[in-house]
Amino acid sequence: MDLVNATIDSNYFLQLSLNLIPVIVIVIIGMACWFIVRYSKQLVFWRKFTIDRAELGLSGPTIIIKPNIEDQQIAYKLWVELSTRKIGLPIDYDHDVIVELYNSWYEFFKLTRELIKDIPVTKIKDKDTQAIVNLSIDILNEGLRPHLTKWQARFRKWYDVQLELPDNIKKSPQEIQSSYDDYQQMIEEIRLVNKKLIKYRNLLERMAFEKK
């Protein structure tokens, strides 16, 4: 099918006729190419997320992933756990109870481990899924575990004893915990972990809800 037909009539006049069908096809293809190039960054299947693991205070270089629907589901489950617990929200150091915070951290540790275990082994072979899983494991092993190992058991032991003392019966949990000898150091380290967890939650939110 020719795009342009040229004929010469009996009076030797040149007549040109334009075939609209191929013209329309070419225009549609051109517009489609322009749309893909113009909006490719906004399309889900083109979208990439940069995970700066160094920024989160974890090991490893910056990595880039392209999460698919299954990866987004994993990110969403982890995001829900972080967003519905105190672990992924800013801490109010004047009102939050440290023991309850540690309970939340410990439960998140267990649930995250279970979520990771539930990922099909066939999916783990995907490098982008591996990136999400490895980052989550780093959050547990390098973000939460060192702090919990250092502080949780000894603070709980001290706190349980303090609750039974007659002088503390009328005191609030916040007043009691603030009298801990290493309270300021513990709080500063909690603050650092909390900042990492908030960044981690924000990253999971971007993945789950396809934010730029």
Please indicate the percent range of residues in DSSP E strands (runs of 2 or more).
5-15%
By DSSP, the count of extended strands is 4
Total helical segments = 7
From the helix content, strand content and strand pairing, which structural class follows? mainly alpha
Strand order of the largest sheet: 1-2
Integer count of domains: 2
CA-based gyration radius: 29 Å
Write the layout of secondary structure elements.
Layout: E1 4-8, E2 14-18, H1 20-39, E3 49-51, E4 63-65, H2 69-83, H3 98-117, H4 121-124, H5 127-164, H6 173-177, H7 183-209
Helix pairs in contact: 2-3, 2-7, 3-5, 5-7
Structural notes for this entry:
The protein is mainly α and 212 residues long. The chain has two domains: 39 residues, no CATH class; 166 residues, no CATH class. It contains seven helices and four strands; from the N terminus they run E-E-H-E-E-H-H-H-H-H-H. It has a two-stranded antiparallel ribbon. Strand 1 and strand 2 form a beta hairpin. The radius of gyration is 29 Å and the shape is elongated. About 4% of the residues have low confidence.
Provide keyphrases for this structure.
single chain, 212 residues, mainly alpha, two-stranded antiparallel ribbon, two-stranded antiparallel sheet, 7 helices, 61% helix, elongated
